[in-house]
């Protein structure tokens, strides 16, 4: 596992982005400062036990050892503010946050892969990670994850020799999109109190967007303006079809949409800058 002591965003995009994991030791404050302490976590746990949060999804293990909050920026203002800052620094259109709280050595949510690039920032306690590479997830499983195929379970399959790393408070682990990974609460050192209270980590995510998501809706709107695409077609076997006319209209519409999307992305980037 490659480790760095300084976060260099230029080097990150050139060397690691969507290729391989990397750990930044002691760089957690560049993602979230101050760190979430146990008082804030316990107050959040008490609130979530009383009410259903809007915009967030809360999952608990029955034995009480695992609490996972998806879209946690909706329940903690500090995470919402951090997401906005990180989106600007990294040039993302959107950043979201998940919160993981475990109490018990070896507790975790299991091996899986995501359709997002994740930055795990350790807050309290320790967490042990096993990590693979994006190519360790088959193309068909990547496709199903990106398309949110109904009933598909994004369980992960680690290679025989995965990367291994322990995160301590203040450490950051980058997990590339599609890379299988599993994190569990660390046990070594608990006898000295290092992780006796449990483990808290926050994952900041840049959610991957496919061309289908980005272009399909505007393309359909643009095609609705093309006569070849909205006028009645002759029934099969009754009148001649004109696939060339359809293709020419499709190419025109696609060129317009890709130009519009590129302009929107550029304007969004200038706004963040």
Verbal overview:
It contains seven helices and eleven strands. The chain has 273 residues and is an alpha+beta fold. The chain folds into two domains: 2-209, Jelly Rolls (Sandwich), CATH 2.60.120.650; 212-272. It has an eight-stranded mixed beta sheet with strand order 1-2-9-6-11-5-4-3, with helices on one face. Helix 5 crosses helix 7. It is elongated and about 75 Å long.
> What does the radius of gyration come to?
23 Å
Q: Note the beta-strand portion.
A: 15-25%
As for the CATH topology of the largest domain, it is: Jelly Rolls
Bin the helical content.
25-40%
What pattern of helices and strands is seen along the backbone? EHEHEEHEEEHEEEEHHH
Number of helices: 7
Tell me the distance between the termini.
32 Å
What is the number of strand segments?
11
Supply the helix-strand structural class: alpha+beta
Order of neighbouring strands in the sheet with most strands? 1-2-9-6-11-5-4-3
Overall pLDDT level:
91
Oligomeric state of this protein:
single chain
Largest sheet: 8 strands, mixed
Shape: elongated
CATH architecture assignment name of the largest domain: Sandwich
**Poorly predicted tracts of residues:** 189-195
Regarding CATH, which class of the largest domain?
A: Mainly Beta
